[in-house]
Amino acid sequence: MTRPGPPVSPLTPEWRRRSFTGGDEGSSRVSTYDCYERGTRGPGVVLLPELPGITPEVLGLGDHLVAEGYTVTIPSLFGEPGREGTALRAAAVAARVCVSAEFRAFALNADRPVAGFLRALARDVAARRPGHGVGVVGLCFTGGFALAAAVEPAVLAAVLSQPSVPLSVSPARRADAGVSETELRSVHERTRKDELCVLGLRFSRDMLSPEQRFATLGARLGDGFRVIPLSSERDNPGGFGRFAHSVLTREVRETPGHPARRARADVVAFLDERLKGGDGRPTHATPTD
User: Fold this and answer.
1) 117 near 151, Cβ under 8 Å?
2) Residues annotated as region Disordered (predicted)?
3) CA-CA distance, 175 to 234, in Å (whole number)?
C-alpha cells in the first residue's frame, strides 16, 4: 500500500511568469528575478520558495492559497522552477546560495540584499491589488526573509515557517532573528502602530530552525509574534520523524485532523484575519510570553 505524500502541483501555464526588478526606495541596490503569479481575486500573497526552489510541493501550497481566494506571487530566488526537490538537488543549490552575497546565509545581524527586492515586490503586488494589504510567507531558507519584507508598510501579515537563516552553526546564530537590528526594530514598531502581525511555525526538534530563534523573536516582538508549535517528539500524534522540518509543504498530508494540515489551515485563517478582515484567529496560534 502506497503511503500518502504531500500535496504537489506542476508548474502549469496558469502560473504567469514575469520578470521583476526592484529594491528599497531610494536605493541603487536592485535585483531582478522571475516571478510566477496565479489568481485573479482577493489580496496578494508573496510566497517565498524553500530549497531547492519552486518545487512541486511549493506549487502545491501556492495552488492551495489561490483556491482559498488569494492572488499568489512566487519569486524564483534560486533553483529551477517546477523541478522535484531531491536531496541531491537541494544540496547543490544550497552550496551556491549559502555563499551568495545576496542571501548572506551565515551572517549575524545582517541586512540581506534580497530583502530590498522582496519589499519592492510586496509594494508592487499591493499597487496592483488596490485596497488590500499583502501577506508574505517564507519557508525554511527564506523564512526570515518574510520578516525582513515586513518592514514594508504594504505588508500586513508575515508568516515565518521554520526560518533557517542564519544557518545555526553556533549559539549566536541559533539565537539570531534572521534580520538586521534596524529591520527588527522597524518590524517591532509596525506591530505596535500598524496592523502588522508575525506568525511563526516550527517542529519542536527542528535543529535547522532552532527554538532560540523563536525565543528571540518572542522577546523582541511581544504580542506581535504568534507561534503555531508542532511536536516532533517521540510518539507524537502526527507521526512526524525527529527530522521533520517543512511544516507547510513536505510534512502536510491531506488527512482530516493531520497536524500539519491543520497548521496550514491556521495559516490561511491568519491571512484571512489580517488581509480580509476576518474575525477568526488561528485556532492553534498563541501569543508568545
Assistant:
1) no
2) 1-31
3) 25
Rounded CA separation 232/222 (Å): 25
Q: In the predicted model, what is the mean pLDDT of residues 108-113?
A: 92
Residue 70's contacts (CB-CB under 8 Å, 6 or more residues apart) are: 39, 42, 43, 44, 45, 135, 271, 275
Long-range contacts (CB closer than 8 Å, 24 or more residues apart) made by 230-234 = 230/201, 230/202, 230/203, 230/204, 230/259, 230/260, 230/263, 231/203, 231/204, 231/259, 232/203, 232/204, 232/205, 232/206, 233/204, 233/205
SS3 category, 118: helix
Q: Which CATH architecture has domain 28-278?
A: 3-Layer(aba) Sandwich (3.40)
Domain coordinates in residue numbering, the chain: 28-278
160 Cβ neighbours under 8 A, 6+ residues apart = 138, 143, 144, 146, 147, 178, 198, 199, 200, 201, 217
Q: What tens digit of pLDDT does each residue of 123-145 get?
A: 999 998 888 899 999 999 999 99
Instruction: Give which of 218, 209, 226, 208 is closest to 184, Cα–Cα.
Output: 218
